[in-house]
């Protein structure tokens, strides 16, 4: 289908379907190959679309990457009850196989967390949505601040593992991290006092 | 004093004194003007040294900045009992005046946290030292992991406030943040949480 056909005959639904196909293709390829080694050409080919459409819909490879990360995060958010969100989000930061292909995507995302470009913007938007969902778990007056502090913890853990690679946190087993972080984060969110000291 | 005098007659003590004067001058100027607006020329002038010495001792402005941040952090570490270190480190991340001149230094430091350059390297080294000091507060088997998790939280809070600027955390009063974070972090460090420890 040529450009002219796109302009004259392409219905809104076609554009949405193409956009969706590009996001799906990008999601698979970024995860398989990492950000750097995924070409715009490969994404377009896998989606059965042309590169011009990719740039028209998303503007740049970085912006497309931001949308993919935001979409994946949002899907996880929508599919998860608030009670389990904290654990699901934390485990999402802790891939079991540290050499897995997702690592470089997470790294690119975390490295962009503070930047003003599209990836950073997508991350901030997603952060807002997670904070809102986590905030519903708390009936404290300062629920929003508590939720931000929990998210800041997740961000810091992700950075320390994936970007800074500080040991022993970088190589720690996800279950061990969850066992330490989740009770502390939950009691912060729920406004509970820290657990009483067990007999030792 | 010319190059030849430096090589022949300069004593080790002179070099140390000049190095120290450059660090002192850089520390003041980075805090007053921020990283970008501080020139190598101004640092050398304030220290009464020449720019060639600055480059000889530190290699680059970025590397000097890394040394300044690491030195300030190390001085705070040495001057603080371990029991108070957590609060002192957290408050160090939370300048009361958010438009204060230190903010941009912290921002530059946090933006470099994951990079492989000298600033990132200084940050990682400092992180090791803080983690070791915090680890002494815990007698848990996994004290080092607990210390890393607490440091990751501080890193995430700093990033969220200074770089991402997410509200309400970015604008929250330091006392309010300390009131939420310190009990949770202390109970994590001291091994009070989680209450049910796996048998070993």
Automatic annotation (TrEMBL), chains A, B:
<feature type="domain" description="HTH tetR-type">
    <location>
        <begin position="16"/>
        <end position="76"/>
    </location>
</feature>
<dbReference type="InterPro" id="IPR036271">
    <property type="entry name" value="Tet_transcr_reg_TetR-rel_C_sf"/>
</dbReference>
<dbReference type="InterPro" id="IPR050109">
    <property type="entry name" value="HTH-type_TetR-like_transc_reg"/>
</dbReference>
<dbReference type="InterPro" id="IPR023772">
    <property type="entry name" value="DNA-bd_HTH_TetR-type_CS"/>
</dbReference>
<dbReference type="Pfam" id="PF17920">
    <property type="entry name" value="TetR_C_16"/>
</dbReference>
<protein>
    <submittedName>
        <fullName>TetR family transcriptional regulator</fullName>
    </submittedName>
</protein>
<dbReference type="GO" id="GO:0000976">
    <property type="term" value="F:transcription cis-regulatory region binding"/>
</dbReference>
<dbReference type="InterPro" id="IPR041678">
    <property type="entry name" value="TetR_C_16"/>
</dbReference>
<keyword id="KW-0238">DNA-binding</keyword>
<feature type="DNA-binding region" description="H-T-H motif">
    <location>
        <begin position="39"/>
        <end position="58"/>
    </location>
</feature>
<dbReference type="GO" id="GO:0003700">
    <property type="term" value="F:DNA-binding transcription factor activity"/>
</dbReference>
<dbReference type="Pfam" id="PF00440">
    <property type="entry name" value="TetR_N"/>
</dbReference>
<dbReference type="InterPro" id="IPR009057">
    <property type="entry name" value="Homeodomain-like_sf"/>
</dbReference>
<dbReference type="InterPro" id="IPR001647">
    <property type="entry name" value="HTH_TetR"/>
</dbReference>
């Amino acid at each position: 289908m040529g450009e002219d056909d796109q302009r004259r005959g392409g219905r809104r639904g076609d554009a949405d379907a193409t956009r969706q196909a590009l996001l799906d293709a990008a999601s698979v390829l970024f995860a398989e190959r990492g950000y750097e080694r995924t070409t715009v050409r490969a994404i377009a080919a896998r989606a059965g679309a042309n590169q011009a459409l990719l740039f028209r819909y998303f503007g740049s490879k970085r912006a497309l990457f931001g949308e993919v990360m935001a979409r994946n995060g949002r899907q996880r958010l929508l599919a998860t009850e608030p009670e389990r969100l904290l654990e699901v989000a934390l485990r999402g930061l802790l891939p079991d196989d540290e050499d897995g292909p997702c690592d470089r995507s997470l790294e690119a995302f975390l490295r962009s967390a503070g930047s003003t470009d599209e990836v950073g913007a997508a991350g901030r938007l997603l952060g807002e949505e997670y904070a809102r969902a986590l905030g519903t778990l708390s009936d404290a007056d300062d629920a929003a601040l508590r939720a931000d502090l929990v998210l800041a913890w997740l961000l810091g853990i992700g950075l320390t593992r994936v970007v800074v690679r500080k040991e022993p946190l970088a190589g720690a087993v996800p279950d061990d991290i969850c066992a330490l972080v989740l009770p502390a984060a939950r009691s912060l969110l729920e406004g509970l006092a820290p657990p009483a000291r067990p007999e030792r």
